[in-house]
């Protein structure tokens, strides 16, 4: 476990800012308790300072997880968000999408969101914007098109590229 | 009772333990191997190959087992164990022979002059101590003058003459000379191409860390290798949370300001006409103010001499 380097912080912040924009400040500058980002086995954890100090006493090979896993660094140095980051993304998300009940299951099986399944969308969402997908179950993805464009699209066009969803808790057991 | 029939039938079932061949079979119990130098019997070979091979193998194995049983044994909980002699058969070498070391300058000279190498013993006899002492190293003979408690000083010696220091310096000079010669030998034997390559690599590493920031803010070139021996440094895990928060906020504001600088003109897609370019074109490079002056009419134009 170690703090992120500047390059790593940049990658993490850039990815988070795609979803929550300037609300990222609220993650760093919290009124209740100091929180910090920690890297452990290529995974980035968002952890309160008190918890982090407790975690220091655990030997590195024995430490599986602490705090909230936001995502992980790939071998090529890119940062990928995990579904476990949803709590924080949903809380601060700038752009949201609600999908109809008949679109829930396809999304939870890891598919993209089609226009036909779109229930509601935040106004003036630009394209390639990170969005949080709401319904009875949640996940997040990246918009394929802007809100203006979606008006003219046919029902089978992809609206949201799938990134992660709560179905991953069942599908991918490695998710911490 | 006559048991000769039974004995004969029993003997027929089992072959003799001795193997009779034209050329004696060589058993090498050390390798657990037998070599059969007899020529192949063509007739039985052609008649039935499997049977021929089996009889050959049987004979060889029999000879090997005979040899094994004639060896001295030691008893063990698992039964008697034969003690194998060292192997006789020379197995071929797996690796190629090591390349001979390139000769040193002295070796070349000695060869040209026909000087034989004399082996010096590591220990020499000390007459005073009446024992064997090291020629060099701990308590070595070469340090005798430095170590003795009293030393004769020559008549014409200077006032501050120190015989111990003198002897020690002499010894150190000899060591330095030998080391220098070793280096020269290595340099003579080295591949000049490899040497040059190493030199260039060393210079490159040196130049990369020779900026004011020790190369921290340098641009990395495509395909540039990470220099060896430069370690990454991470902040301590148990950092002050306040400092960390400040650093994160600073980084965040830096990312934002960078993004602002990089941001493209948002209305670029909507404006089909590039206004700036159109103005420049219409005013023939004089700018919007010149155009405004033109629309006012002719009264604005300068007249007469200045």
Task: Provide the descriptors you would attach to this structure in a database record.
heterodimer; A: 176 residues; Nuclear Transport Factor 2, Chain: A; Archaeosine Trna-guanine Transglycosylase, Chain: A, domain 4; 2 domains; 5-stranded antiparallel sheet; 11 strands; B: 306 residues; mainly alpha; 43% helix; nucleus (chain A); RNA-binding (chain A)
What can you see in these coordinates?
Chain B: It holds the Pfam family RRS1. Chain B: This is Ribosome biogenesis regulatory protein. Chain B: It is found in: Nucleus. The complex is a heterodimer of chains A (176) and B (306). Chain A has 176 residues and is an alpha+beta fold. Chain A folds into 2 domains: 2-89, Nuclear Transport Factor 2, Chain: A (Roll); 95-172, PUA domain (Archaeosine Trna-guanine Transglycosylase, Chain: A, domain 4, Roll). Chain A is 30% helix and 29% strand. Chain A contains 7 helices and 11 strands. Chain A has helices spanning 6-20, 24-28, 49-56, 86-92, 101-108, 147-152, 168-171; strands spanning 2-3, 35-40, 43-48, 68-73, 79-81, 96-99, 113-114, 118-121, 130-134, 139-143, 158-165. A 6-stranded mixed sheet of chain A has the order 7-11-10-9-6-8. The longest helix of chain A is centred in the N-terminal third of the chain and has 15 residues, at 6-20. The two termini of chain A are 15 Å apart. Chain B is mainly alpha-helical and 306 residues long. Among the domains of chain B are: 6-82, no CATH class; 145-150 and 161-212, no CATH class. The longest helix of chain B has 27 residues, at 163-189. Chain B is flat and about 150 Å long. The interface between A and B is medium-sized, with 23 and 17 residues.
């Amino acid at each position: 476990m170690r703090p992120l380097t500047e390059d790593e912080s940049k990658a993490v912040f850039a990815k988070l800012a795609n979803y929550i924009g300037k609300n990222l400040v609220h993650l760093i500058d919290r009124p209740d308790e100091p929180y910090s980002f920690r890297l452990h086995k290529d995974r980035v954890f968002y952890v309160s300072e008190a918890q982090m100090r407790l975690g220091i006493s655990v030997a590195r090979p024995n430490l599986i997880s602490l705090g909230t896993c936001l995502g992980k660094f790939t071998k090529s140095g890119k940062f990928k968000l995990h579904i476990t980051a949803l709590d924080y993304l949903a809380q601060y998300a700038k752009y949201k999408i609600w999908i109809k009940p008949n679109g829930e299951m396809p999304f939870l099986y890891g598919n993209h969101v089609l226009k036909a399944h779109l229930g509601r969308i935040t106004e003036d969402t630009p394209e390639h914007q990170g969005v949080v997908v709401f319904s009875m179950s949640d996940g997040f993805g990246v918009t394929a098109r802007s809100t203006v464009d979606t008006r003219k699209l046919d029902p089978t066009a992809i609206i949201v590229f799938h990134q992660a969803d709560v179905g991953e808790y069942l599908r991918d057991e490695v998710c911490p | 009772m006559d048991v000769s029939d039974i004995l004969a039938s029993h003997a027929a079932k089992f072959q003799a333990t001795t193997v009779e061949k034209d050329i004696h079979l060589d058993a090498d119990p050390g390798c657990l191997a037998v070599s059969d130098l007899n020529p192949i019997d063509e007739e039985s070979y052609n008649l039935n190959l499997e049977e021929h091979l089996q009889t050959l193998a049987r004979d060889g194995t029999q000879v090997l087992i005979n040899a094994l049983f004639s060896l001295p044994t030691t008893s063990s909980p698992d039964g008697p164990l034969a003690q194998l002699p060292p192997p006789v058969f020379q197995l071929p070498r797996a690796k190629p022979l090591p390349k001979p070391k390139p000769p040193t300058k002295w070796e070349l000279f000695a060869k040209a002059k026909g000087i034989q190498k004399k082996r010096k013993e590591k220990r020499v006899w000390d007459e005073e101590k009446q024992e064997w002492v090291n020629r060099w190293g701990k308590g070595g003979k070469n340090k005798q003058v430095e170590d003795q408690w009293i030393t004769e000083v020559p008549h014409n010696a200077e006032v501050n003459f120190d015989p111990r220091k003198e002897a020690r310096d002499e010894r150190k000079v000899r060591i330095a000379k030998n080391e220098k010669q070793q280096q020269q030998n290595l340099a003579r034997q080295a591949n000049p191409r490899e040497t040059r390559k190493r030199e260039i690599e060393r210079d490159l590493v040196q130049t990369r860390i020779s900026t004011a920031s020790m190369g921290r803010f340098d641009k990395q070139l495509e395909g540039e290798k990470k220099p060896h021996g430069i370690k990454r440094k991470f902040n301590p895990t148990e950092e002050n949370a306040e400092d960390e928060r400040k650093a994160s906020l600073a980084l965040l504001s830096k990312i934002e300001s960078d993004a602002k600088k990089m941001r493209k003109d948002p209305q670029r897609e909507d404006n089909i006409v590039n206004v700036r370019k159109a103005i420049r074109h219409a005013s023939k490079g004089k700018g919007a103010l010149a155009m405004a002056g033109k629309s006012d009419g002719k009264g604005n134009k300068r007249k007469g001499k200045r």
